[in-house]
Design goal:
By secondary structure, the chain is of the alpha/beta class. It folds into two domains: 11-134 and 290-302, Rossmann fold, CATH 3.40.50.1370; 136-288, Aspartate/ornithine carbamoyltransferase (Rossmann fold). It is built from ten helices and nine strands.
Length: 304
Amino acid sequence: MSFNLKDIISIRDFKKSDVDYILNLAEDMEPIAKSQKVSHLKEGKLLGVMFYEPSTRTRLSFETAMKRLGGDVVGFNQKQGTSVQKGEVLYDTAQIVSQYSDALVLRHDMEGAARFVADNVDVPVVNAGDGAGQHPSQTLLDLYTIKKSLGKLNDIKIAIVGDLKYGRTVHSLVYALAMYNVEIIFISPDQLRMPDEILDDLKKLNCKFSIESSLIENIDNVDVIYMTRIQKERFPDHKEYMKVKGQYTINKKNLENTDTIVMHPLPRVDEIDFNVDQLDNAMYFKQAFNGVPVRMALLDSIIK
């Protein structure tokens, strides 16, 4: 089994064999991610990080992954203090950072930004989120979490809840899930439904899905609940945001009699009560850790 993608831009660029390769390699990387082993695989290599939008887990886990592999990191985590403030365009900034590094990780508010950069630099590029577009490394760590929690990726039922219109994590995730034998239940306010073009794609991929309005009624019917926050920053109108804020929430009492695992790409706002953290089936912090071995596997695969 081999991995032949140069850039990690969209999960739609992946074949199922590519996904399985990364998930298997991530399992091998886990002892290194946990400091049980030391790696020198990328010693002498530099990862360039360009984060135009805020990030905690994605940025830190990529930096941790590179350092766990024996490499190092250069770049920026905000536009302040860079030449972007002086009007430097994305193309120029990417050209400069790519000259200093062996691969780039880019988060940007403009959908398509990562593809644009990948087409214009000579080093591999990883899309760490482009507006409401894609977030492929998040998808891979989500799959890894499901596989580790349930022991499989086939024959599962998953409820995806919250902001399905603007949520780039779920836009990537559903295409990956469609590679396996899964059933998806989409639960969201009408204003935040999964875009029709993605639903049409899922039909073409023969992925079984349904659209529901109630989370509580479906908790016992699924293997996985994938919660997302309502993304205030994606709403052009604050009044529209206030109409849907807090519409879907779960607490410990909702989950007391079920083995359904709860996932969330984080950060959370009010959609998962803090008392859920005590439950064995709360997987979102483990999910965040899983970003390290998965991103180690990705970086090891594209940095030569």
